[in-house]
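Slide 14.
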Amino acid sequence: MRFDNLNLEKGMYSISGKAFTSVLEELDPTENYIGTKLEGLDAFERQLKRFDIKVSGSKSDCVEKFFSTSTSATLFPEYVRRAVISGIGESEILNNIIASKTYINSLDYRSITSNPSEDDKSLKVVNEGAGIPTTTIKTQENLVKLNKRGRMLVASYEAIKFQRLDLFTVALKQIGATIAKQQLQDAINVLINGDSNNNKAEEIELGGEGFQYSDLVNLWSKFEDFELNTLLANNDTIVKMLSLTEFKDPVTGLNFQNTGKLATPIGANLFKTNAVPKDRIIALDKNCALEMVCAGDVSIEYDKLIDRQLERAAITSTAGFAKIFNDATKVLKTAE
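Slide 15: predicted structure.
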């Protein structure tokens, strides 16, 4: 088997359109290990096994274990990347508002959309010989705006080389969580204001004096062709919402106590994030509203990390958001 004698080098990180693990997989396919004791490990994990590097658990190795040889040092940037991605992936809110994630290899991308008219939505009988009603799907006029979000890793090798990898992973995952928080702000801005394709969300005014449960019911009623299954609101707004009599239903409260997740009497999941303005509640169909566009994966300054130059190593992710169906998002104005 080839995993124990692969020649690892920096250049494996710079192959266009391929991640380090993808390059490893081509040289050492996982399918070759079916039925062996290494089944279940991918190509990178087999390299960790090769150099006996334990990255998790109470008996995890210290950071310096990666640098025991020049060959094993090549694995360190991929370890960092995976830990950061894990932190991004733990963003519950972001994961619950994305209908589709698209990876591209350039900075130019146009999403698709379909905004049928009321006549197009009607269910018509197709008579013999008559034309069949159409649904038009087209590309957006303007490109998706991509933003580079990231953090600078600032740590001297001498300071961290004796730190356990399981603890260092926690710190790296926090970098990923911060990137995800920045991306969530970008996503919410697109949900409210659109993606520069004349698709700002419809705003719904309060029906009376002050925010009432009837306003949520009215918001729910606006989703004729989509399902209102997700609500996003600021902390202050959620406090007001939970003070409404209808939210004091014992079943709703019991669900929150058991799961820690906020559900609403109208059946939608409620998420708290201060990225939403204080006077707004965003309502959406999470299955149809938003596309996340990623220009590649998380980017790591691999050469610095391999050479133990951690003091100024950038970790970035370039991504943007586009609306798919504009009517799948509505915004309730909670202040008159």
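Speaker note: The chain is about 30% helix and 20% strand.
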